[in-house]
Amino acid sequence: MSEVIEPGLELVDRQNRFVSEHLRRIFIQIYRIVGNVADAQDLTQEAFIKALQHQEQLKDEQKAAHWLSRIATNTAIDFLRRSGRASFCELDEAPQSQGESPEQLLLRSEQRNYLEDGLRLLSPRERAALLLRDVEGLPAEEVARQLECSMATVRSHIANARKKFRLYMERRKR
Amino acid sequence: MKHPNQATLALHAGGDLNILARWRTGRHLAQCAVCRDELAAFEAVREIAPELREIPEIPWQRLAAEMKANIRLGLEAGECVRPGEKPLRETRWFTGARTAVAFASMVALVVTGLVLERPAPRDAASEGRVAETTAYGIQLSEDGQAMGLLHAGAQEQNVTSTVSARGGVRERYVDPETGYVTINNVDAQ
Predict the structure, then answer these.
(1) Where do the H-state alpha helices sit in B49-152?
(2) In 3-state terms, what secondary structure has residue A109?
(3) Which among B11, B44, B74 has the least Cβ separation from residue A158?
(4) ipTM field
């Protein structure tokens, strides 16, 4: 009897381990694209369910991580396309961390708002390209793979994102 | 002097140009202060971007537990929707019963093939009937009794005999007087 049950348990264990290992990274990745916690939470769950329903892909850990990132990015981009929004409104509602003075917290919050306002100016794909390349530090080839587009297209997204962000920074300085 | 466009400078700031374009842009930048300023502005974007790594102060433990539970629930719901499907890795192709049925089917197929390919030959000799050519014509004999199909008057050199695969005999002879051709076929069945 145990022989019948064991493979199922092993599978559940493997899935749980996979979720625990990648949950935070994927949540952050999606959060940066969609810009709010509730949507990021829903989309993170959706991305993991999509990935785990094709568990045969999980044999190779390295590939599985990249594959999961790709699913996460596309899930978030599709969501933004459908809903046509990216809101960062929940940041201020989040509980504050301990050990920082109110001034520090205020400064951090302002800086975060400043950056997130800039991100809002980008299209979903430009935002994803900028985040994956300049925040995650992934090579452009990997960004192209994750966004499922050509290198030329990714370069165009990255260049546009940097140009828009630069313009935004210059305007805010004035 | 032709300046590189904004996109080229934006890509150069992150090292995203190909070798040739990078070299060309680098050469231009070495002698163009305006483009160096432009590049510095793009580099500032690159420098500030990692600050986006910071996420809001959220109750991560609670959020993670919620997400894990929902993911498990979603997977189980997905399994319920397709109860017939079984993961390939858990499917056993060769169970005992399947192997036996497959083996029996193969044996039956081979035997049928052999039977169809080699039908029992209808051997006339084995049934006691023999058809043979004689100097006078074709003779059919069985159990010591014989019956002949004679071609009287025919000379031996005018007769052509052939034996068929089924044990029959065919004779063709020409009447020397009239020139008529007669063909006799006798099958020993």
Answers:
(1) 60-81, 96-117
(2) helix
(3) B11
(4) 0.71
